[in-house]
Amino acid sequence: MPDNTRRARDEAFWQTFADRYDVQPGPVNLENGYFGRMSRTVIEEYQRNIELINTSNSIYVRQRFEQHDNLEIRAQLAELIGVRAQSVALTRNATEGLQSLIRNYNRLQPGDQVLICDLEYDTVKGAMRWLAQQRGVEVIEITHHHPASFDSLLESYREAFTRHPKLKLMALTHVTHRTGLVMPVQAIAALAKEHGVDIILDGAHALGQIEFDLQALGIAFAGYNLHKWIGAPLTLGFIYIAPQRLADIDPDMGEMHYPVTDIRARTSYSTPNIPALMTLPLVFEEHDALGGAAAKSPRLNYLRNLWVSRVRHLPGIEVLTPDDPQLYCGITALRFTRHADQQAMAERLLSEFNLFTVVRTGAACGPCIRITPGLTTTAGEMEQLVHALNQLR
């Protein structure tokens, strides 16, 4: 058994990890997909940085941060994902970055088609529909068969590319926020390339939660968060543009603070959350010290499987996320089949069993309750979930 797989089951080890975090007494949080916790040491560093910026003000920022520290942080970020520093630009979150990539993609002509699916983030769908209004393109929306399989997902895109030869651009979500389905990005990207379709990848839930090689995926444009599974303060994300494709994304609304050859011109220029950015070197250090996604992913998958394996075949419960290891991560969704109102059931999980979850809607397979353990979640808390589901089903 690989070390990380063995460690994933080691409750004593993960308790020492959880001890680095301050957790408010109250419900068990099974909605860790919204944003992640910062460790106690990261919070302390963040607070020190707030004090430094408040006292030194623009003197430090102009003389040190803008000229040196910011560039070093960007280089560390690029190293984290195995790309060149010139191919990343910091944003406030993945959504901001994805909107910039979509609205500034310049290879569309009136009459072209763009593609979305039912599992995309609503803001991404909205941005693609905005293209229809502003560029005269047609939006094609597909729905994925349920239950999903590797082959069915790939076939959905193969059929779309064949049926709609005017497709030029598509959105693709690496880890879908509704059900936690992990899309076979590399296979879909290869298929899209055959048909001349570019992909803008939503990696908001992927970075830090699952292992991937960005360059091997064959993706030229992507947006990511740093505040979900990396452990950074809120308001931090970034975009990636493959260097050879930079010219296909225009500077954001004519941004002139950076040269047209600089990826940073593809984001809005404004005063960022400098103390949060200054905290990133410590965030990266702690992420790497734990073992990165290679350590986090097995733990989250282990916690997921503790409850899924116990309820998958129970009458009254439908687990919507498949068990193919290629297609799942820590996030997984379920539905109570004997109860129409999933929101009411989520409220009962909270009021009767002290378990906090969230309902997601918008997928063709219907409303669901999203279960997202975190890195401070224990096996015992998964047992609490199994008990609750048995009682409520």
TrEMBL record:
This is Isopenicillin-N epimerase. Residues 67-368 form the Aminotransferase class V domain. Gene3D superfamilies: Aspartate Aminotransferase, domain 1, Type I PLP-dependent aspartate aminotransferase-like (Major domain). Keywords: Pyridoxal phosphate. The keyword Kinase does not apply. Coiled coil: none annotated. SUPFAM superfamilies: PLP-dependent transferases. The lineage of its organism: Bacteria, Pseudomonadati, Pseudomonadota, Gammaproteobacteria, Pseudomonadales. It comes from Pseudomonas atacamensis.
